[in-house]
Amino acid sequence: MTTNHHTTTPPPAAERVAVVTGGSRGIGRAVSLKLAQDGLAVVVNYARDAAAADETVTAITAAGGRAVSVRADVADEHAVAALFDRAEQEFGGVDVVVNCAGRLALSTVADLDLAVLDSVHRTNIRGTFVVAQQAARRLRAGGSFVGFSTSVVGTRFPAYGAYASSKAAVESLTLILARELRGRDITVNTVAPGPTATDLFIEGKTPEQIDQLAKTPPLERLGTPEDIAQVVAFLTSGAGHWVNGQVLRANGGMV
Questions:
Q1: Which domains, ranges and CATH numbers included, belong to the chain?
Q2: N or C: which end of the chain has fewer CB within 10 A?
Q3: Where does residue 120 rank: exposed (0-12), middle (13-18), buried (19+ CB within 10 A)?
């Protein structure tokens, strides 16, 4: 039996550091709060809403956790490099990166404004790639990267063409990056939520549409941001470290 000399002992939980993009609201906020509750220091990234990011940080610090908020557009490689610099300056390194930042636009293929397509793909594809690139360069041994997809890649609902195609790109990157990080004791996984009760999901839908989607999974309810945060917490913990290169559909039993 050979021993692996590439690994070094990961830092204890109290010294672990997470960068959560899109961490000010919705699933990103729930992930930030959960990781902080588990003892990680959290860098809460946001794009525009400084007040929401500050609320997330206040909630973490009020409970005795450690957190700072940092503004950065995930598709801007210089801003994202500065985000990681700040994490290292503030807390000493980076062990967990969760890319929750995303953009949704609904339209048929025939009617989609291509400027909207570009903006969705800029955040969802380029943004994921930019954040993953920094994660690949900076994560410490024992670390984890978690990307975000959507269960619509499986369900293929009409009007989700731009969004689902951008998230399919995230899924295809997952195992490739995991393999590229061979020997560094770093996992790479993607979580693909189903319908989840966030502002992003509820916006633009009628109560009837929301009710219909809630009844689709066999568990007959919408997911909550906390449901998804629990999955992320598992994948980025020691308990989930044997899961690598996977796309996990956290959706209550949809396709």
A1: 13-250 (3.40.50.720)
A2: N
A3: buried
